[in-house]
Design a protein that fits this description.
It comes from Sporomusa termitida. This is DRTGG domain-containing protein. InterPro entries: DRTGG, Ser_kin/Pase_Hpr-like_N_sf. It is a single chain. This protein has 120 residues and is α/β, with parallel strands linked by helices. It has one domain: Udp-n-acetylmuramoylalanyl-d-glutamate--2,6- Diaminopimelate Ligase, Chain: A, domain 1. The chain contains 5 helices and 5 strands, in the order αββαβαβαβα. It starts with a helix and ends in a 13-residue tail after the last helix.
Length: 120
């Protein structure tokens, strides 16, 4: 699913990386535990999280994520947005709760990032 479509269905605001919205996210992961993201998330996944600190950007870079969606209207500070822009990581913000946002994306065909999904 293209990031532009994700932005549309989640009614998300683009914080940075509008020029990258034509990129494809292969799957999605909803987590507030960056250790789980590092351990279980596949490359080119989109991360949905309520965490807004700089470690989320570092995790996204290490995991080669397609982008980050901040849920519940959580807005990162300017230093987080600047770092993401420098690293080419698109940031979006939705007012939706994580459960709802993940459900919408799954319903629209974006699979999860779990090992179980590989067998489908």
């Amino acid at each position: 699913m293209k990031l532009a479509q994700i932005q549309k269905v989640l009614e998300a605001e683009v914080l940075c990386g509008v020029e990258l919205l034509d990129q494809e996210a292969k799957c999605a992961c909803g987590s507030d535990l960056m250790s789980d993201v590092l351990a279980f998330t596949k490359e080119r996944a989109i991360l949905l999280t309520g965490l807004t600190h700089i470690q989320v950007i570092r995790t996204a870079e290490m995991s080669d994520l397609a982008g980050i969606i901040f849920v519940r209207g959580k807005r990162p500070g300017p230093e987080v947005i600047i770092m993401a822009r420098e690293m080419g990581i698109p940031l979006l913000l939705t007012q939706r709760q994580m459960y709802e946002a993940c459900g919408i994306l799954y319903k629209d065909g974006l699979i999860g990032s779990s090992l179980k999904e590989e067998t489908l």
